[in-house]
Design goal:
The structure holds two protein chains of two kinds.
Chain A: H1 23-59, H2 67-82, H3 92-125, H4 138-152, H5 166-191, H6 196-220, H7 223-233, H8 242-261, H9 263-269, H10 273-278, H11 283-305, H12 311-323, H13 327-351, H14 360-378
Helix pairs in contact in A: 1-3, 1-13, 2-3, 3-8, 3-11, 3-12, 3-13, 4-5, 4-6, 4-7, 4-11, 5-6, 5-11, 8-11, 12-13, 12-14, 13-14
Chain B: E1 4-13, E2 16-26, E3 31-35, H1 42-50, E4 57-62, E5 65-66, H2 72-78, E6 79-82, H3 94-99, H4 112-125, H5 140-153, E7 158-162, H6 170-187, E8 190-194, H7 198-204, E9 207-212, E10 215-220, H8 227-234, E11 238-243, E12 246-251, H9 264-276
Parallel strand pairs in B: 3-8, 3-9, 6-7, 7-8
Antiparallel strand pairs in B: 1-2, 1-4, 4-5, 9-10, 11-12
Helix pairs in contact in B: 4-5
Classes of the chains: A mainly alpha, B alpha/beta.
């Protein structure tokens, strides 16, 4: 046995007679290849609406312009900066696109992808359709971290409080609390061996705890601080910038790359842990790393934009409905759906009450709740 | 060609000892059945053999190396495990589920050889009509067969199965046992399973291990199962008769009022019938 390498072609699988497989087996391979092709087509078909939404998003705003001009302004601005031009010499149209709309729309795309993949990974590794950055308490913890920074002016890095810019302190605090909350939940599950399904209950407990703490901070805060915190707690894309966008994009890119590395482990973990282990998946390892990765992505997004609900919960459900459980296709589809939902919510948030921009977190809840209710009502038995 | 050996394996959940000093050796090309009443430690033993649980003392050898020395992927290419089928809450097609068995051999995307292996296995287990169905639409028995197909697609040297015939109707039970016998005979796979049906065990096994309260109380050829052993292990009186040259275990317990614990009044009524029983040869 010791000589057998995992890459060795299946000895068992060679059909018994030399010659071809049975007709039935050949048909199965054909069927499967057609299925894969169909899934690829669905994936390709989802790219188009996203591009349309991004284009529309560039055009929507108080300074109304037509779509062709927007892209032109974008490329002009891009060319201007890459060829070492100065901001001041840029035309107003180009500056609106470059400074405001482009980072905003692209942040919607990237944050949508990030929240979606965080939710997908959490749902799969916990085998629980209710898992999401919110139900696991990550977002609430981040909010409390922000509340501490805004109201008590206290940072987890108190000693450098004077050296760090205030904005950054809010972000860092939110981030540290989010990851910390996830670690606490995970450690509790290690102390008392609980099923992955139960982890969500612990997460909900954390959510209530941190929400209460945030409420306490609000109660103790001065009015102007409370106003600032309240504003922070409306997840909003208005807070973005090119710098923040690149930070979010970097973390999201890492998450998507790791998710892709794990596709077969994630697929294996859809059935029970024992089956997953027996095909060589490091179940505990992927579960811990996945929880941390999910919190990392969520924490980054929430810390910068504030909490944006429901995308992490809804996008994976929609994705499974559209393309099934195979993560090779489910990951890109879920990411695209997350981006589509958040860019459309952003467009709605900027048009529904023009010129006032409604925080996008409010819109996603309005869109997400009916969507989730619909998904729950149409599911068959225990199945998602 | 891989032998699976347990040497003096102990296992305890918290303070409750589930396995005492278990020795066992499963040989390539043979089917070994682990018998015993509920709670005897059969599944725990299977999980120790498979590396899901780490014995608190003793060791398990896969080939000539301790199980712990294997890397994950290496072990999963050498040994497959079929737990009792649990339904998943997320969608997955049968073909995709069986394809997971190829995971130890896969890069990012399955090669044609992997797809052919999966198709061949699905055909061999007789679930080709289900290949494009979703797992959750399947009956318990069909799911069990998918689990077995997945394990076969894994192309293991050692195949462990936890009650592979549970949930299956008679035809499919025999079907599965035949597939396992074929794997052992033709491909020299080492097959180890737990099973409740004594007659299936006698018919399908080359070797038998009988457990009670975490200990092995008998092991050897199927002929080691005799009325005394069954009475000792299960507390059931039975006869072992020979039918068409095969041993068959027939319980003496009558089902119905006769079999239940009786009050004194009832005892009088059924007394005579009990006395008339005599062991068949």
């Amino acid at each position: 046995m010791n000589g057998k390498r995992p890459t060795e072609t299946a000895r068992l699988m060679v059909p018994e007679r030399p010659g071809a497989m049975s007709a039935a087996a050949a048909r199965l391979v054909g069927d499967y290849r057609r299925l894969v092709l169909r899934r690829l087509l669905v994936l390709a078909a989802l790219v188009a609406p996203l591009l349309v939404l991004v284009t529309i998003g560039m055009g929507v705003g108080t300074a109304g312009e037509n779509i062709g001009d927007n892209w032109q302004s974008f490329w002009t601005a891009l060319w201007h900066f890459t060829s070492g031009g100065d901001r001041a010499t840029l035309a107003l149209d180009e500056r609106i696109i470059w400074d405001l709309r482009a980072p905003r729309v692209l942040t919607a795309v990237v944050a949508g992808i990030g929240l979606a993949i965080a939710g997908l990974i959490m749902q799969t590794i916990l085998r629980n359709p209710l898992a999401s950055p919110y139900t696991l308490g990550v977002a609430s913890a981040a909010s409390f971290g922000a509340a501490l920074a805004i109201i008590l002016k206290a940072s987890v890095f108190g000693f450098i409080g004077d050296l760090v810019p205030y904005d950054l302190m809010v972000v860092v605090n939110a981030f540290v609390f989010a990851v910390g909350a996830m670690l606490v939940v995970y450690l509790m599950t290690r102390l008392q061996r609980v099923t992955p399904e139960t982890i969500v209950l612990l997460g909900v407990a954390m959510m209530f705890l941190f929400d209460a703490l945030t409420a306490l901070a609000q109660y103790l805060g001065r009015p102007e601080e409370v106003a600032q915190l309240t504003y922070w707690m409306f997840g909003s894309l208005t807070k973005t910038s090119w710098t923040k966008l690149s930070a979010v994009a970097a973390v999201v890119a890492i998450a998507v790359a790791i998710g892709y590395r794990w596709v077969w482990d994630l697929n294996a973990m859809l059935s029970d842990d024992e089956s997953a282990r027996s095909v060589g998946t490091n179940v505990e390892g992927v579960r811990l790393a996945g929880l941390l990765l999910g919190s990392l992505v969520t924490a980054t997004i929430v810390a910068i934009l504030g909490p944006i609900a429901f995308i992490g919960l809804v996008a994976p459900h929609l994705g499974r409905m559209i393309i099934g459980g195979d993560h090779r296709f489910l990951i890109p589809v879920t990411c695209l759906l997350g981006a589509i939902v958040l860019t459309s919510a952003d467009i709605v948030s900027r048009t529904v009450n023009d010129p006032v921009i409604i925080p996008v977190g409010i819109i996603t809840a309005f869109v997400g709740v009916p969507l989730l209710l619909y998904l729950v009502m149409r599911r068959k038995e225990d199945h998602w | 060609m891989t032998t699976l050996t347990a040497q003096a394996v102990h296992f305890a959940y918290r303070r409750r000892t589930v396995l005492h000093d278990v020795d066992l050796s499963a040989q390539p090309g043979r089917v070994l059945s682990i018998l015993g009443p509920n709670g005897a430690g059969k599944t725990t033993l299977l999980k120790c053999l498979n590396g899901l649980l780490r014995p608190s003392a003793g060791r398990v050898l896969l080939g000539d190396r301790p199980l712990g020395e294997y890397r994950r992927r290496e072990r999963s290419a050498a040994m497959a495990y079929v737990p009792q089928a649990e339904p998943s809450r997320f969608p997955m097609r049968v073909f995709d589920a069986v394809l997971l068995g190829r995971r130890p051999y896969l890069g990012w995307t399955p090669r044609r050889a992997d797809l052919e292996a999966v198709a061949h296995t699905i055909d061999m287990v007789g679930i080709d009509h289900l290949a494009q169905r979703d797992m959750h639409e399947l009956s318990g028995g069909e799911r069990q067969k998918v689990g077995i197909a997945k394990a076969i697609a894994q192309d293991p040297d050692v195949l462990l199965l936890d009650e592979p015939t549970t949930y299956l109707d008679l035809e499919h039970q025999l079907n599965v046992l035949q597939i396992l016998a074929g794997l052992a005979e033709k491909r020299r796979v080492t097959v180890v399973m737990t099973i409740h049906d004594l007659n299936h065990a006698l018919a399908a096994s080359d070797d038998i291990v009988v457990m009670k309260q975490g200990r092995i109380v008998a092991s050897g050829a199927p002929s080691c199962v005799d009325p005394e052993l069954v009475a000792e292990v299960y507390g059931v009186h039975c006869d072992v008769i020979t039918h068409r040259g095969r041993p068959i275990v027939v319980p003496r317990t009558e089902i119905g009022l006769h079999g239940l614990p009786r009050t004194d009044a009832e005892e009088v009524k059924v007394h005579e019938t009990r006395e008339e029983e005599e062991p068949a040869s």
